[in-house]
Design a protein that fits this description.
Blueprint: H1 7-27, H2 32-48, H3 52-78, H4 83-115
Helix pairs in contact: 1-2, 1-3, 2-3, 2-4, 3-4
């Protein structure tokens, strides 16, 4: 079993997260971040076209990229970063990666179930 990285899948996941964030903000405001990352990670794992470890890898990379973009946005909006904000953002980054792993693996399993 070979783990393959797909730029196409990760980039699609990042763009879908950015597009679904404002849409879900109107529908379900309290779960916007979680839901948009899960949906994008499922799509990322589906596009990755591999077994579930490969989908999980691509989902994790997508989640990490989204988390780092969120940290950058917070830094640009606040202009500074203190320890309390940084610790919250690090936990959020870990959560984004975890959601990416779960969604990516689910997307790969979904693709294999549809193809068979």
């Amino acid at each position: 079993m070979e783990l393959r990285f797909s730029w196409k899948a990760v980039a699609a996941g990042i763009l879908i997260t950015a597009a679904l964030g404002p849409v879900f903000r109107f529908v379900i405001p309290s779960f916007t971040g979680i839901l948009s990352i899960i949906v994008a990670a499922v799509v990322c794992g589906y596009i990755a076209d591999s077994e579930y470890p490969g989908g999980a890898l691509n989902g994790a990379i997508m989640g990490a990229a989204v988390g780092l973009i969120n940290i950058l946005i917070v830094y640009l909006k606040t202009g500074s970063m203190n320890a309390a904000i940084l610790s919250i953002l690090i936990y959020a980054l870990a959560g984004d990666v975890s959601l990416g792993i779960l969604g990516g693996a689910s997307g790969s399993v979904l693709r294999s179930a549809i193809e068979s």
